[in-house]
């Protein structure tokens, strides 16, 4: 079961205790204050329990109005002591309590809701999260409030005790995609996860200026469109509907977009026209994919491996986004990073923890365009555009994020990393994905109807996002 597979009517909690001690001995940093995807780890936990009565247990921190901040006694007394302090600060009327740590980068309301829904369906005293590796997350759980209070009271002095001291061996568990952050490597991976990267873009990219123009595909209204006059002009309840004939009430409106993308290929080893070197095959499919998310794509000149060629590409003022296929690596012939540094660009995304396509980058050039750097291998370029093309265009136009399009996997992913793979329906409401995909050509995409984003260690039946 995934964090999105739950009954909303049962997915409710009355209260939450967020353990935010922050010592982070293995990490060496104050964990709740670390930024992942443009927000603190503490804020991820707060967002996941929004609407409930919330107590944060830990040292002084900035918390939203209405959130209670308390300290366990003694300070640094451990997670069970923190939960005891949180219970003391909560109303006795609470019936269902979520307990979670402030070191879970991708915890969300769906995760907490799924735990709450399972507890409600089974009337279990507690439901614990289990990460994709099978490790129990004691600090991601939903409890029956009376059971939790009785269990904490039963241990006497909670100082130094872990949460597992009050959890039975047969406690119900729910497998989730959420993992915690304990080490510097965990933090590095969390910051490069697909979800964190896309959240960084939505928080870090500027929106396009507003212009007044005709209503065209790919543009987004900059403010609500208000009817010029009531229709029908009188109160009327005898009709089921109305048909309108005649000229429109509105022909122009304040808009952002469509996003203009200048798409370049690059590299002396490839040839845009096929007269020498490796044939260039990625630009057409990448252009089609970006057009499909509402952008206006212009095929622009092939870039030689020279600093001057890349510097000129970044100086364009007729494009909102400059997309470059190739040169995202760190080799001697890869000129994009050097050009970005020379232009004073801000690198928002420098790689994604996904394969293939992981060296993708996104940057903003002062007074210039957004730069989308895609890998040179054709399949990796296509998959990278599928991952970040839509969030880039949505953010620049100020559009609301499209809800995730979820499909069920027919095959597991034994890889501990995220993967982007072509997929094909199996005729039984699940989607097959290959074990691997070659990046040097696009043959792996032929005959497949979708591209899916598969979490680490996903199992058959798990819901995954369809990117394109």
Described by the principal axes of the CA atoms, the overall outline is globular
- Count every beta strand, where a strand is a DSSP E run of 2 or more residues: 26
What value does the Rg take, in angstroms?
26 Å
* Strand fraction: 15-25%
Outline the low-pLDDT stretches.
1-9
- Estimated structural class: alpha/beta
Portion of residues within helices: 10-25%
- The pLDDT mean sits at 90
Strand order of the largest sheet: 5-4-1-6-8-7-9
Number of helices: 10
How far do the termini sit from each other? 23 Å
Summarize the main sheet: 7 strands, mixed
Q: What topology does this entry show?
A:
Layout: E1 15-19, E2 35-36, E3 39-40, H1 41-48, E4 53-57, E5 68-70, H2 79-89, E6 96-101, H3 109-122, E7 126-130, E8 136-144, H4 145-154, E9 172-175, H5 184-191, H6 194-204, E10 211-214, E11 220-221, E12 252-256, E13 260-265, E14 270-271, E15 278-279, H7 283-292, E16 296-299, H8 307-313, E17 321-325, H9 336-342, E18 346-350, E19 354-355, E20 361-364, E21 370-374, H10 378-397, E22 406-408, E23 418-425, E24 431-432, E25 450-454, E26 463-466
Parallel strand pairs: 1-4, 1-6, 4-5, 7-9, 13-16, 13-17, 14-15, 17-21, 19-23
Antiparallel strand pairs: 2-3, 6-8, 7-8, 10-12, 11-12, 18-20, 20-21, 22-26, 23-24, 23-25, 25-26
Helix pairs in contact: 6-10, 7-10, 8-9
